[in-house]
Write a structure and sequence with these properties.
The protein is of the alpha+beta class. It is about 25% helix and about 40% strand. The longest helix is centred in the middle third of the chain and has 15 residues. InterPro entries: HotDog_dom_sf, MaoC-like_dom, NodN-like.
Length: about 160
């Protein structure tokens, strides 16, 4: 995929995989910082010894919301930049499913397929991505989701054909 595309290119890309991110290692330090930020200190996330002894995971696992939040970094890593974009906004998710745990020390990466787009108002493009987070050496993804974002742009840059 090109590093940069124009607004006019986006509709023709619906249905295509637009990017697969680089791998990100989810280590205990990342999990602990997320636990501190969200006040979620459940033992399966922050206590390696207890998680190994009392959980089915063999050790600590990442919070599902930590894995979800990594989509932002994965997005910036692999999706083409839209030349006319002045700002991007996270609009939300239609569906999120946490399919399998992310064990501490494993690597994850995001897969992004553009599943829809539509121009809204004079200077906004709403995009929908089918995303999944792959866990290295695992068959099932950590999560799947339908992610909606908004690309803002100067109305003068709106493609004439839309």
């Amino acid at each position: 995929m090109a590093q940069e595309i124009s607004l006019a290119d986006v509709p023709s890309l619906v249905g295509q995989v637009l990017g697969i991110s680089n791998w990100i290692t989810v280590d205990q330090q990342m999990i602990d910082k997320f636990a501190d930020a969200t006040l979620d200190h459940q033992f399966i996330h922050v206590d390696p010894e207890r998680a190994a002894a009392e959980s089915p995971f063999g050790g600590t696992i990442a919070h599902g919301f930590l894995t979800l939040s990594l989509l932002s970094a994965m997005n910036f890593d692999c999706l083409p930049k839209i030349r006319e974009q002045t700002m991007g906004l996270n609009y939300g998710f239609d569906k999120i499913r946490f399919m399998s745990p992310v064990r501490c020390g494993t690597r994850v990466r995001g897969h992004f397929t553009l599943s829809g787009c539509r121009f809204r108002g004079a200077g906004m493009l709403m995009t929908t991505y089918d995303v999944s987070v792959e866990v290295e050496n695992e068959k099932k993804p950590a999560l799947t989701a339908n992610w909606i974002t908004i690309v803002q742009f100067d109305p003068k840059d709106r493609p004439p054909e839309v």
